[in-house]
Amino acid sequence: ETGVTQTPRHLVMGMTNKKSLKCEQHLGHNAMYWYKQSAKKPLELMFVYSLEERVENNSVPSRFSPECPNSSHLFLHLHTLQPEDSALYLCASGLRDRDYEQYFGPGTRLTVT
Amino acid sequence: DQQVKQNSPSLSVQEGRISILNCDYTNSMFDYFLWYKKYPAEGPTFLISISSIKDKNEDGRFTVFLNKSAKHLSLHIVPSQPGDSAVYFCAASGGMEYGNKLVFGAGTILRVKS
């Protein structure tokens, strides 16, 4: 499979649940990103990993916990979320020195009940 | 405060006519600008970009214009086709100094009517 894939595509979870979002890229990139897209709002950068090291945490609450075990995989672990966390979560990848051209996955539509 | 603004939430254009999508930015340190296109149930895909040293970049039916003094860029699509119907995001980057981070606008929904 090519490009950037994300699983699951849809997720409904209660506020006390723990779940994880997965992202995988097959493009040979060395930087990966998590974005949040809420309705009618700009894409918000959450986390940046460069060469598997977290280089950016954009004031994201600790109930979101990223993990990047290698350059091809990125996870977002979720626990005790709030209804306002319901959004589309997009993963992207790029090359560290050209990461203004990012390649996005299809996103996970998250609903917190 | 949003650094990249797309003030038109939606735009409707007849097939064959020109679509013009606008974007304004506030940070004069931005030096690279991009347009992404997003279909439903898919992630944004890179469409076209422009460096701040240029004022125009063309790729087939798509042309991006940059007016640095006005901190304004626009995407022209001509002729517009029904398959162009999507959400278009403007994004800006401050280069290495800003960690190459992208700052996105809220998007404009383009509908091309046949």
Give an overview in words.
The complex is a heterodimer of chains A (113) and B (114). Chain A is mostly beta strands. Chain A contains no helices and 11 strands. In chain A, the strands form 2 sheets. In chain A, strands 2, 4, 5, 6, 9, 10 and 11 form a 7-stranded mixed β-sheet that branches. In chain A, a hairpin with an 8-residue loop joins strand 9 and strand 10 (103-104). Chain A is globular and about 40 Å long. Chain B has 114 residues and is mostly beta strands. Helices cover 0% and strands 54% of the residues of chain B. Chain B has no helices and 11 strands. In chain B, the strands form 2 sheets. In chain B, strands 2, 4, 5, 9, 10 and 11 form a 6-stranded mixed β-sheet that branches. Chain B has a 5-stranded antiparallel β-sheet with strand order 1-3-8-7-6, with no helix packed on it. In chain B, strand 7 (62-67) and strand 8 form a beta hairpin. The relative contact order of chain B is 0.34. The A-B interface holds A 4, 6, 9, 40-43, 45, 48, 55-56, 90-92, 96-107 and B 2, 4, 9, 32, 34, 36, 41-46, 49, 89, 91, 93, 95-96, 99-107.
Q: Would you summarize the structure shown here?
A:
By secondary structure, chain A is mainly beta. In chain A, 0% of the residues lie in helices and 57% in strands. In chain B, the strands form two sheets. In chain B, strands 2, 4, 5, 9, 10 and 11 form a six-stranded mixed β-sheet that branches. A five-stranded antiparallel β-sheet of chain B has the order 1-3-8-7-6, with no helix packed on it.
